[in-house]
Request: fold
Amino acid sequence: MTTGYVERTITLMRGIDAQELLPHAIRLLSDGEPVALDRLAAAIGWAGEDVEAALEQQTSAERDRQGRLVGLTLTLRPTPHRVTIDGRTLYAWCASDTLMFTVMLGRPTLVESTCPQTGQPIRIELTPAAVLGLDPPAAVMTAVRPTGRLADVRATTCSHGHFFSSAAAATDWTREHPDGYVHPVAEAFRLDRQVIERLGWEAR
Reply:
């Protein structure tokens, strides 16, 4: 399924509780350190209590014992999707996120993941403009795009987003997600870049 991916992804992003925080949180988290809420509030121009309330709405948001933000799509905690930015190792909640970060941050990104079907390592070299390297070349990205408000975006959406070593390796996933999307990585990047640009979240 390919029809409407960009529109449905934009609708999904706009339906995420605390979505206004996302671009600011991702840019701050890309420094590789927990983000104090007053820093996030200053970045977005909100009062601290409004940031706190927004994060409370998004149950996926990861906080440390001091209450600092450590994960909101980009995370400091290990996941199957590793992202290297400026020599720092970070992680992503889902495959699609990894393709969006380079556009949002304006920096080259190395993505490393593992095919959940074959166990084969997957490596993607990205710039904000293009996929520079892909191993294996036939790798694909999967995604689901539910509608409505998303108070737990990680469980509802991100847990279904993977990189597979090939379309054939994603056959079982496709059968289990008949309304899902399976795109070659280069095509997925092109579409996700459109999403970020349409939202106005690209690096300036």
